[in-house]
Amino acid sequence: MSTGVHEPPPEAPAQDEAATAAAQVAAPPEVIADSLGEYVRIWLKRVRSGESGALPVIIGLVAIVVYFQARNSLFLSAGNLVNLVIQGAVFIVLGMAEVFVLLLGEIDLSVGFNAAIGATITAWLAFSAPWWVAILAGLAATTAIGALQGTLITRLRLPSFVVTLAGLLGLEGLLIVLVSRSGHGRGVTIPIRNSIIDDLTTGNLGPAAGWVVIVVIVVLAGVFLVLRDRRRRASNLVAPPASVTALKVAAMAAAGAAVVLVGNTNRGIRIPVRGVPWVVFIVLGILTLWTALLGRTRFGRYVYAIGGNAEAARRAGANLVMIRTVAFTLCGLTAGAAGVIYASRLGSISTNVDGGQLVLFAVASAVIGGTHLYGGVGRMLHAVLGGLVVAVIYNGLGLLGLSAAVTDIVTALVLLAAVTVDTLARRGRATG
Asked: H/E element holding 376?
């Protein structure tokens, strides 16, 4: 006899618990956590389920650093760490350039030589024009090249692999022509004669100024996070617990303090050399700008949507042609910035630039850091982490006196390991 009361089936509590567990894996911890302890528990559950994020990269980076320090005690010296950061700046910025197109499931094989073209134009014009005009001209050229390739890919529906491979070959030839006709240097090299461009990597911020800049950056970041959380709560949206936000600010402060302490350590031989290199703040500025673009604008949301499901994004109103073209344009612009940094570090630009290796390191930086080749998943921070891994390998093996061949082989193995871990994790999540 029916009593009129509908009781839930016995399996309902179990279903509710399963749904809750699935939500904790799918949603970011800060969205559903009410305290720091709950945040940590949800994060650990995500790691156990395969959503480890950047954790494998960080663990791998620490392991590589420990290995090189055990092999050579000079690896963690202030002088070598600063040199490592300067070397890695090119890989990091090129990796950020590649992230724009990888998020769409595309690729740009020409970023290495495109960067060299920007560096060549900058070095050439620096002889007769103000430094900022020379840099802007170099960036404009690489941006135009990126836009041209993006237009060919989107308007004519050509494969990005083929178009950018053609770009790699064509830009290599253009590099030879530009350098030989510049009238500067020895026909195969254009030296950097402008002190400001040279100081982008060789110059340092004063020790006291370094502390001031880092404090200002951390304070501004902390204020931004707090105000963002308040706005979200005022709009009845979920926001991270205050303790989680405080932990993020503390982590940024600790990282900034470590950078300044290392930079302010005297690393000179005959004369004192102290201060954080300018290139650190340049890379940080590029990272902040592009992270905001992808994370807080409609363009960024469309990029992720197209990379995840292009047809669904089109039905939702995204202009696929425009978004893809802009992504390749921004890739070219960022490659130009990497080229200027590269020329500043070498003090010149020449026809001997190995653009093929640079593009491989760029893709490796993005993918090792966690950006997926099939699109839809990735962040600019991934290029920073992956670029640091590549730079550590490059620097550490050089410090041990090993050849460039060994560097390429080890980098290839690390890249293969990163892709394997990510693939197995995704396969495990799909099975679950």
From this structure: none
C-alpha angle 93-96-101 in degrees, rounded to nearest 5: 140
Write out pLDDT tens, residues 325-338.
999 999 999 999 99
Place of tokens 């039905």: 315
Closest Cα partner for 166 from 108, 246, 100? 108
- Per the structure block, which two tokens stand in for 383? 């290029």
3-state secondary structure of 48: helix
pLDDT tier for residue 406 given thresholds of 50, 70 and 90: confident
Residues 114 and 146: beta-carbon distance below 8 Å:
yes
Residues 6+ apart with CB under 8 A from 128: none
The pLDDT, as a whole number, for residue 415 is: 76
| Distances, alpha carbon 278 to alpha carbons 85, 234, 260, 321, 389, in Å | 11, 39, 12, 37, 21
What is each CA distance from 129 to 54, 121, 140, in whole angstroms?
43, 11, 15
Q: Are 386 and 368 in contact (CB under 8 A)?
A: yes
Tell me the C-alpha distance between 274 and 412, whole Å.
Answer: 35
55-206+275-427 carries CATH number 1.10.3470 = yes
What's the farthest any 2 CA atoms get from each other in the chain? Answer: 100
CA–CA dist 248, 226 (Å, integer): 11
> Which residue, 369, 391, 363, 367, is CA-closest to 382?
369
Interatomic CA distance for residues 408 and 4, integer angstroms: 73
